[in-house]
Design goal:
Layout: E1 4-10, E2 16-23, E3 37-42, H1 46-70, E4 81-87, H2 113-129, E5 137-143, H3 156-163, E6 168-171, H4 183-191, E7 194-196, H5 207-217, E8 236-239, H6 250-256, E9 263-267, E10 270-272, H7 276-287, E11 298-300, H8 307-314, E12 330-334
Parallel strand pairs: 4-5, 4-9, 5-6, 6-7
Antiparallel strand pairs: 1-2, 2-3, 8-12, 9-10, 10-11
Helix pairs in contact: 2-3
One iron/sulfur cluster is lined by residues 253-254, 257, 259-260, 273-274, 276, 318, 320-321, 324, 326.
Length: 346
């Protein structure tokens, strides 16, 4: 979310406030642009509108400033890994249209904690001892699929904190399983300083209760667009189409892409500049397609001689980027459930 600049685009003629955000790394904001991230937040009365506007204005000021500072050339080697995404579970308990992690197409599959620990140990060794400059990884996102489906989910938290004591650790969840979490869940998050960064879908979840529990247990939960008594978030569906023939221009795609060298993926001892090549196996299996993932699309962290070598690798397009139809991406479709139709991904 920090990659977006947000603008209020409509508030006068309906009981909703629309916030339009454009990715600062791909193109400039224009009110007519199709490439935006759209939220509609409903309010019930004048007081709620006033409160909502005050909250948004405060947040927007900060976000915009952060965006300006964070604009960077993704083909430039970064001093550290900005965000790393860990697929704790490949599958999901929600079924979103065009899910970019292909989770609606995935069979149940859980990350092995031992292999995860080995990978983190190796990354920490490279980051802190072998040319990493001690900066390591800024944000480690435990996600999926739905990470809370993992029966040993809590085991991932102390392991992550052990190797990356200063990184921000977050849980990206759709929230469906949050209300039923036992006290030990909240206590572990508090103990290891782990934040919940949920995505808010238009499904029935009692966020007020969850927030109350989180506050009670001293756990940070980022409900950016939810304030007391003021919310009905409308999450959009995104369309990130693939060119099944791989005829797109990888360098062009990578340079314009919002995730390459920004949200990298770790899987089975390999790092990818984005998570798409990690998830495509589910798409290929479900639709019988043959989008290829080459060894050269990722770097083997056990063969890399230094953290610097990894950072240099992540700043380059992958051959896999030839499958992305980046100019056809859309962020403004009304959220809907997947029908597992190949058109959602092509
Ligand atoms: S909640 Fe997230 S991971 Fe699950 S199907 Fe929806 S977009 Fe995919
Ligand atoms: S494959 Fe390349 S262009 Fe496509 S999302 Fe990943 S980094 Fe971006």
């Amino acid at each position: 979310m920090n990659n977006f600049i947000f603008k209020k685009v409509k508030s006068e003629d309906s009981k909703k406030i629309y916030i339009c955000g454009i990715n600062v790394h791909t193109t400039k904001y224009t009110p007519t642009s199709k490439k935006y991230y759209l939220f509609g937040i409903q309010y019930k009365n004048k007081k709620q509108k006033t409160n909502l506007m005050a909250m948004l204005n405060e947040r927007l000021a900060k976000v915009e400033q952060f965006c300006i500072n964070s604009t960077y050339n993704r083909t430039k080697t970064q001093p550290y890994i900005r965000q790393i995404a860990i697929m704790v579970a490949e599958h999901c308990n929600l079924n979103c249209y065009g899910c970019s992690h292909c989770s609606p197409l995935a069979e149940p599959e859980f990350l092995d904690i031992n292999s995860y620990e080995r990978d983190l140990e190796r990354l920490a060794l490279l980051a802190f001892q072998q040319g990493g400059g001690g900066l390591g990884i800024d944000i480690i996102q435990l996600q999926g699929g739905e990470p809370l489906l993992h029966p040993q989910f809590l085991d991932f938290i102390p392991v992550t904190r052990k190797y990356f004591p200063d990184s921000e650790i977050t849980i990206t969840t759709n929230g469906i399983l949050l209300e039923q979490q036992p006290d030990i869940f909240w206590e572990t998050l508090h103990k290891y300083n782990v934040e919940i960064t949920p995505t808010i879908y238009p499904i029935k979840i009692n966020w007020e209760n969850i927030k109350k529990k989180a506050d009670e247990k001293g756990v940070t939960i980022d409900l950016t667009f939810i304030a007391e008594n003021i919310f009905q978030e409308i999450k959009t569906s995104w369309h990130w189409p693939y060119d099944l023939k791989g005829h797109q221009e990888p360098v062009y795609n990578f340079t314009k892409c919002m995730v390459g060298n920004s949200c990298v993926g770790l899987s089975n001892g390999r790092l990818y500049t984005c998570v798409l090549p990690m998830a495509i196996k589910h798409f290929n299996k479900y639709f019988g397609t043959n989008i290829k993932v080459l060894d050269s699309d990722s770097i083997d962290i056990y063969k890399a001689q230094s953290f610097q070598e990894i950072l240099d690798f992540l700043a380059k397009p992958m051959a896999f980027c030839r499958y992305c139809k980046i100019d056809e991406r859309r962020f403004d479709l009304p959220w809907s459930r997947s029908k597992k139709d190949i058109k959602e991904w092509t």
